[in-house]
């Protein structure tokens, strides 16, 4: 596996910790009957302060018998060992393969005594090895669980979203502790009419041991009994309660993101706000039926959520500052006069490496059906470009090695998006009004043209599948490069418009001049009346108060 920079989606803090985890990821899930067009949809924000946003690619290829594959830990780049390679591996672009299998994850850590289990298969390697070896979601689950059984598990507690063009599963897994190989795990198929999510907290509750929609390790209950995590009957066993008990941090920093998704698309979810505030024992369900069906655009937009429209909205507390910024710099907790406080942890966050929405469509040939809507950096200000799952060439703007976390590149989408976002973080409510229309323009244009691209690809596929793949590869590359170039122009525009705290006047789509080629005098937008009122009621009010009103 090629080098991955450190990526730990959740810090293992121990079950007693009551503050949200420092780094975290989010997965949203839409089964085919809950989507507007019958697609299976999963999303993923790979959130980390050290992960560089780039698009991974493994080409399909044959391997000689006896070839050994190195296993390199995704988080650390540490060599862990080797496993035998299979005879043939599939094309993988990002987290989607040529057969429309997509896998994502969130880390929840879990019981600290189960950390440091013996083995070489870390969660990142499990994802990308499974993608190269699987044609269906169920096959991917088999690959993951068999690899862990044979070679051991090297990570802490994980939730995986495992999807194909027909179904989607949540697989949850945790190791057995130091000196023991393997893992205990459970998997649940999400019903076709439902949506689900996970965000760094185990969510599988009771297991229906007789249903084909549940899979599990043979010792998932007996191991919990052995360790003293559970003492009841099998029918009462809860995977979440046994292996990742709720804490205040797990509710407020993790389950709250799931609640935000459910609450957006089901009008009865308000009752669970008390649960995420640790004021009720009434747990949220693993999945729900939405009030309406969701589109890919709905999921893209949900990945940009900061609890808008709820009591947790991040623009409505003093931390938002004068420009209503829905972000909080780390650490996530702070102490004042002996009392500890927390900031909200929303789905959209500044420290995202990459984000995707995978769209998997069973009515099209696999080469055409799978689309990885891929973006980099903060999902709120990312442009997600369509990358078809059969793509065989990575766009230069997403190429591995085009810059890194310590080296800036003007041809890297990650750095260009960071440049724009980091300008906006300081004047969010003003700049987002200029950013959002460009984002909508780029993604909306792709939404509208995709049916035409699909049709052209199908015509080529009927003649020669290789020509269809080449066509889709070219289209995917062109769209990504076009979006990156447009975002760079947007950054230039924002820099000019908002320099020095001012806001340049515009006229007919151009910056206004004074009539002689110089810039017109800019506007001085200042701050909101709400912010001025905070100053007027602060300790500095007397010092800043004018003693005499100016005469005009």
From TrEMBL:
Keywords on record: Dipeptidase, Hydrolase, Protease, Signal
Catalytic activity: an L-aminoacyl-L-amino acid + H2O = 2 an L-alpha-amino acid
Gene3D superfamilies membership: Penicillin V Acylase, Chain A
Top-level division of the source organism's lineage: Bacteria
Gene Ontology molecular function: cysteine-type exopeptidase activity; dipeptidase activity
Signal peptide coordinates: 1-24
Pfam families xrefs: Peptidase_C69
InterPro entries in the cross-refs: Peptidase_C69
One GO BP annotation of this record: proteolysis
Entry EC number(s): 3.4.-.-
Family: Belongs to the peptidase C69 family.
Designated name of the protein: Dipeptidase
């Amino acid at each position: 596996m090629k080098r991955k920079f450190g990526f730990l989606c959740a810090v293992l803090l121990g079950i007693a910790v009551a503050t949200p985890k420092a780094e975290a990821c989010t997965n949203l899930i839409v089964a085919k009957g809950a989507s507007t067009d019958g697609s299976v949809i999963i999303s993923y924000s790979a959130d980390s302060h050290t992960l560089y946003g780039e698009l991974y690619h493994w080409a399909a290829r044959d391997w000689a018998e006896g070839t050994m594959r190195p296993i390199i830990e995704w988080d650390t780049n540490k060599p862990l060992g080797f496993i035998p390679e299979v005879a043939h591996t599939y094309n993988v672009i990002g987290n989607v393969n040529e057969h429309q299998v997509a896998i994502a994850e969130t880390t929840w850590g879990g019981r600290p005594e189960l950390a440091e289990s013996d083995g070489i298969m870390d969660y990142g390697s499990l994802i990308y090895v499974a993608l190269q070896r699987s044609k269906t979601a169920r096959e991917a689950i088999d690959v993951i669980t068999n690899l862990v059984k044979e070679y051991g598990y090297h990570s802490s507690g994980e939730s995986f979203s495992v999807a194909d063009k027909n179904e989607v599963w949540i697989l949850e897994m945790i190791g057995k502790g130091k000196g023991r190989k393997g893992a205990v795990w459970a998997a649940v198929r999400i019903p076709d009419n439902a949506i689900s999510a996970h965000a760094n907290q185990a969510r599988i509750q009771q297991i229906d041991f007789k249903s084909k929609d549940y899979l599990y390790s043979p010792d998932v209950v007996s191991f919990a009994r052995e360790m003293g995590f559970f003492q009841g009957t099998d029918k009462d066993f809860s995977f979440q309660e046994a292996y990742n008990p709720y804490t205040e941090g797990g509710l407020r920093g993790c389950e709250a993101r799931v609640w935000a998704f459910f609450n957006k698309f089901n009008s009865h979810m308000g009752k669970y706000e008390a649960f995420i505030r640790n004021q009720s024992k009434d747990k949220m369900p693993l999945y729900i039926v939405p009030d309406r069906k969701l589109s890919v655009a709905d999921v893209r937009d949900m990945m940009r959520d900061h609890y808008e429209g709820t009591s947790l909205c991040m623009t409505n507390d003093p931390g938002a500052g004068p420009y209503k910024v829905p972000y909080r710099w780390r650490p996530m907790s702070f102490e004042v006069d002996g009392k500890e406080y927390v900031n909200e942890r929303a789905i959209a966050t500044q420290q995202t490496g990459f984000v995707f929405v995978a769209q998997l469509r069973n009515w099209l040939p696999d080469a055409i059906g799978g689309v990885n809507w891929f973006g980099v950096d903060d999902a709120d200000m990312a442009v997600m470009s369509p990358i078809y799952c059969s793509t065989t060439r990575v766009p230069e703007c997403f190429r591995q090695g085009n810059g890194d976390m310590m080296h800036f590149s003007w041809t890297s989408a990650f750095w260009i998006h960071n440049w724009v976002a980091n300008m906006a973080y300081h004047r969010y409510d003003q700049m987002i009004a200029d950013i959002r229309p460009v984002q909508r323009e780029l993604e909306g244009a792709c939404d509208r043209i995709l049916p035409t691209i699909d049709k052209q690809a199908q015509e080529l596929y009927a003649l020669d599948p290789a020509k269809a793949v080449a066509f889709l590869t070219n289209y995917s590359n062109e769209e990504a490069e076009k979006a990156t170039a447009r975002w760079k122009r947007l950054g230039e525009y924002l820099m000019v418009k908002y320099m020095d705290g001012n806001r340049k006047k515009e006229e007919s789509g151009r910056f206004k001049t004074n009539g002689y080629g110089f810039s017109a005098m800019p506007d001085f937008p200042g701050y909101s009346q709400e912010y001025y009122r905070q100053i007027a009621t602060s300790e500095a009010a007397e010092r800043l108060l004018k003693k005499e009103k100016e005469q005009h």
